[in-house]
Amino acid sequence: MKLPLEHPYPQAAIGCKSADYSVEISINGKWEKVPALDVNGHTIVVRGRWIRLAVIDGEEWLASEPQHPEVCVEQLRGQKRPGLRADIFTFSQKPPATQPKYPYPMEWESIAVTRVTSFKDWWENLPQESRKNVRRSRKRGVVVRVKELDDELVEAIAGVNNDSPTRQRVPFVHYGKTHGQVKKDQSSFLERSEFVCAYLGDELIGFLKVVYGREIASLLQILPKASRYDFRPAHALIAKAVDRCAEKGVSYLTYGKYRYGNQRTTSLMEFKARIGFQEVLVPRYYVPLTLKGRIGIALKLHRDRVGMLPHSAIRLGVSLRSWWYNRKVSTGRCSSMAERPRL
């Protein structure tokens, strides 16, 4: 995501910002200043080494998809700044627009979506076990509140970050961050965001940040305390987020990707299904800007490792990674606390 926030989208004015425009983006939990191209309020940055991909920064949480992608393509093809020379421009449509609109090469992208008509409809379609977990959270004393970002909440979020140095058996990039770093991390899209917070007494045991668009709201982050797993904060947080969407008349709530690349069933995918999210496929376009880009698309080199490798290789890699980090953790600290997946 970028800092500063995205600009309004003036459809009548087609153009880009000055040649020295740059933004700060978060890469693996660290903020870096990079060259950027602003086309009608959409900030484009370039990532990758051998195959350079031009992407819309914070695309998942923007209020709209690009209405004039051909302008982005034209501006990118004419770029002379080294940091903005790209081989491929990629962008996607947003639910409920699932039918391809543009004549560019595309692949189907898997999104986790729940349709919000009313809280009652969402609740009645949940499995019995999920409803039990939401009730269990309430019975055990968890109270969910909607909060604004202030110094008190920043300090509490830092406490959630520091609950465990690992998440999903890998080092957690937000562990040990200062008050100022946490505040910067949480300051994007504030004018249309809410923080849904789960409290056990005065202790924040989990939070999620939801960003509202026109028809769609998106979960930017959901982070329960691993040490408070038995209080089911993740279930309580999502129930409240759905309730808020229903109150605001938002039709869809998204929770990142449903399926990542060639992965099959994962614990996170199962959790999303149990809490009412379904897989929706939307077009993601890959527009070649150079000969290298055309070759890269033909050979599927524009995909990340999870999208390139077969499922068996992914499972082996995950197992080896878990073994390696478990070995590091066991030799680096003495703790009997069970790590939980970051739901």
How many alpha or pi helices?
10
**What is the radius of gyration computed over CA atoms, rounded to a whole number of angstroms?**
21 Å
Name the CATH superfamily assignment of the largest domain: Gcn5-related N-acetyltransferase (GNAT)
The portion of residues assigned to helices is 25-40%
- CATH C-level class of the largest domain is Alpha Beta
Secondary-structure element pattern, one letter each: EEEEEEHEEHHEHEEHEEEHEHEHHH
Strand content: 25-35%
- Please tell me the CATH architecture of the largest domain by its name: 3-Layer(aba) Sandwich
Number of domains: 2
The residue ranges in which pLDDT falls below 50 over 5 or more consecutive positions are 1-15, 331-343
Strand order of the largest sheet: 4-5-6-7-16-8-15-14-13-12-9
Shape: globular
Given the helix and strand composition, which structural class is it?
alpha+beta
The end-to-end distance, rounded to whole angstroms, is: 20 Å
Largest sheet: 11 strands, mixed
Number of strands: 16
How much is the average pLDDT?
Answer: 85
Describe the structure.
This protein has 343 residues and is α+β, with helices and mostly antiparallel strands. Helices cover 30% and strands 28% of the residues. The strands form 3 sheets. It has an 11-stranded mixed beta sheet, sandwiched between helices. A 3-stranded antiparallel beta sheet has the order 1-2-3, with no helix packed on it. Helix 3 crosses helix 6.
Pick out its properties.
alpha+beta, 2 domains, 343 residues, Aminopeptidase, globular, 10 helices
